[in-house]
């Protein structure tokens, strides 16, 4: 694993699947055990999506304490890198500091809960980075599910993460402040609240191949309810 010689790097932002650490807004609709099982499916399908691109180095960026657990889950699907500092903003800063360190590459940070994203959107994001300094995939709730750049810009994510309702606005004002050009890919949704889960279940019922493990888990859960 490691540098495949590709100038494209896709980094999944993840945490170890521990109770209270992931997808907390899906409780109480789901039990803690169910949330953990669901998150493992999302992460597994997200890594499969990443690997399906071809000619892309795949990595996971996570808190230091989660490295061993995620390395076991990922197997040889991805290298696992510990972020410097706490929180998602520190994680995003670490992605570009780590992977843009030695030479310029097109680097995309991607959340771990959008495995149902069409692969063409990720291809499009890498393509846009050939022309623009930064690429962003907005979510419908004011955050973003994907952000890419060709170099490290430490001020870009200071104290902000992907998931808050003003995250996109804050990011774009910083991009403008740094004089960087930005391209956008298709707006999408990630899985934060119960309505997102309902929407995902309906979509994967029609096209389970988009996220097979997650589709199977949702189908089994439906069968039990």
Give a structural overview:
With 225 residues, this protein is α/β, with parallel strands linked by helices. The protein has a single domain (8-191), classed as Spore Coat Polysaccharide Biosynthesis Protein SpsA, Chain A (Alpha-Beta Complex). Helix content is 39%, strand content 16%. It has 7 helices and 7 strands. Strands 3-2-1-4-6-5-7 form a 7-stranded mixed sheet, sandwiched between helices. Helix 1 (32-51) runs antiparallel to helix 7 (212-224). The longest helix has 20 residues, at 32-51. The model has no long low-confidence stretch (mean pLDDT 92).
Structural topology:
Elements lengths: L7 E6 L18 H20 L5 E6 L4 H8 L4 E4 L4 H13 L6 E6 L7 H10 L5 E5 L5 E6 L17 H11 L4 E3 L9 H13 L5 H13 L1
Helix pairs in contact: 1-7
Summarize this entry quickly.
With 225 residues, the protein is α/β, with parallel strands linked by helices. Helices cover 39% and strands 16% of the residues.
What tags apply to this protein structure?
Spore Coat Polysaccharide Biosynthesis Protein SpsA, Chain A; seven-stranded mixed β-sheet; single chain
């Amino acid at each position: 694993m490691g540098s495949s010689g590709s100038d494209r790097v896709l980094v999944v932002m993840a945490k170890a699947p521990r109770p209270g650490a992931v997808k907390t807004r899906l409780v109480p609709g789901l039990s803690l055990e169910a949330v953990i099982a669901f998150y493992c499916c999302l992460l597994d399908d997200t890594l499969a999506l990443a690997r399906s691109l071809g000619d892309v180095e795949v990595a996971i960026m996570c808190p230091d304490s989660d490295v061993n657990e995620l390395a076991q889950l990922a197997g040889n699907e991805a290298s696992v890198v510990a972020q410097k500092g706490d929180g998602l903003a520190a994680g995003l800063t670490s992605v570009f500091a780590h992977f843009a360190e030695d030479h310029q590459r097109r680097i995309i940070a991607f959340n771990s809960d959008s495995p149902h994203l069409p692969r063409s959107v990720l291809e499009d994001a890498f393509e846009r980075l050939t022309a623009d300094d930064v690429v962003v995939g907005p979510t419908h709730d004011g955050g973003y599910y994907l952000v890419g750049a060709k170099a490290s810009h430490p001020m870009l994510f200071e104290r902000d993460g992907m998931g808050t309702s003003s995250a996109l606005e804050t990011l774009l004002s910083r991009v403008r402040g740094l004089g960087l050009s930005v391209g956008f890919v298709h707006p999408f949704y990630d899985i934060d609240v119960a309505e997102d889960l309902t929407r995902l279940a309906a979509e994967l019922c029609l096209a389970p191949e988009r996220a097979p493990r997650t589709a199977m888990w949702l189908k089994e859960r439906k069968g039990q309810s």
